[in-house]
Every structure is written in structure tokens, then in C-alpha cells.
Amino acid sequence: MSEQLAAEDVAHDAEFPELIEGLQTRRSGHNFDPEEDISDETLEALIEDAAIAPSSYNLQPWEFVAVQDDERLDEVVELAYGQEHIRDAGTAILVVGHTNAKTADAVFEDWVDAGRMDEETAQQTKAQTAEMYDDDGMGRDYAIRNASLAAENLMLSAHARGLTATPMIGFDQEGIAEFLGLPDDEIPVMLLAVGPSGGEEPDRLPRRSVDEILHRESY
Fold first, then answer.
1. Got the DSSP string for the chain?
2. pLDDT in tens, 7-53
3. Which of 18, 76, 146, 151 could form a disulfide with 190 if both were Cys (CB 3.0 to 4.6 A apart)?
4. The domain defined by 37-100+138-199 carries CATH number 3.40.109.10
């Protein structure tokens, strides 16, 4: 069951209070119902919501690999160092990031078609973007930053549908990339276990206060 918020607990200035409630009640749970699975329709809806996350220049440098076959889930559990809740969830989704600007041609054509850039500006911007991605460190950073935004969207979408979704970065990156057949220029960013809730979760551990983490004007 999700945590419930009283109306007065939701931000007083929220134009979309249900969205704020969703943000505040989302949990990274580990209690899944192993007898229930998500439907193909729900899986596709989760990916659709993930894919509207913001991304640099709208490059959308992400892919999603869903594993639901029982034997393949067993392998994912092993690659995730024995995290058994993945099997109980029934669906594992690897969020993958591009380390190069492989979508740039189509994306910048969209910019021009939409009248948001002229052809010359689009070509210049595309060249600059490709140059940034040519740096291995920058390419990896772009992959992780953009794909992580998509992963958060997916988790919020799951929560909005009454599902539990848990992110994991504790897994054998090389092993899972090989197991799932990732191209050499794409990297595993985050592994998500997604499925119907199995019931109550432990209380959320304390979070650092705003006074502790908010810095104004400088650190």
C-alpha cells in the first residue's frame, strides 16, 4: 500500500497536487507479489512515459530492455548479485544510455521541420553535439544523466499505476551488457525491478532536511 498524505500535507501552491502527492509517496520497495505480473499494455505505457523525460537537445539517448522470462530473470538475479526481489517482481528493465549522438540526424531534422531551427543552425549544433560525445568521458556522462531522467519517469509512472519499482545500480555491468546483447556504444545505466506490490513496506528511512542540503548563492 502507498503512503497516504492528508490534503494539507501537499504543497499549498501546487497546480497539480496529485503529482506532488505521487512524488512524495513513491517508494523504492522490495515487496512484490510473485503471483501477479504486469501486462504488455502496462509495460508499453511505462516505456511511453519514460520516453517523454527531458534530454539534451531532445536526443532521447536511451533504450529499455525488458526481461520477463523466468529463466532469464534467474540470470538477471545472478548478475545483480542475488537480489531476489527482481524475480518476485516478474519484470526487470535495464535502462540503457547511448554514449554517442546516434539519434542526431533524425532529431535535428525534427528541429528544422518544427521551425525551431534553420538548417544551418541545426547542422552547426549537430556538429557541436557530436564533438562533445566524441570525448569518452563526456559521452558516458551524457548517457548516464539522460537515461537516469528516463528511469525516474518510469518509476513515477509505475507508482501512479499502483505498481512498485525499485532502481538498482548494484549489478555486473559488463555481464548484463553481454547477456542482453548491448551494442558496444551503449551502456547499462540502471536496472529496475517493476511489478505489482506485495503489501506494506518498512517506513521510509530519514531524509536529510532542506536546511542541511539547500545552499543559497554559493556552497
1. ------GGGS-TT-SSHHHHHHHHH------B-TT----HHHHHHHHHHHTTS--GGG---EEEEEE--HHHHHHHHHHTTT-THHHHHSEEEEEEEESS-TTHHHHHHHHHHTTSS-HHHHHHHHHHHHHHHHSHHHHHHHHHHHHHHHHHHHHHHHHHTTEEEEEE--S-HHHHHHHHT--TTEEEEEEEEEEEB-S--PPPPP---HHHH--SS--
2. 456 667 788 999 999 999 999 999 999 999 999 999 999 999 999 99
3. 151
4. yes
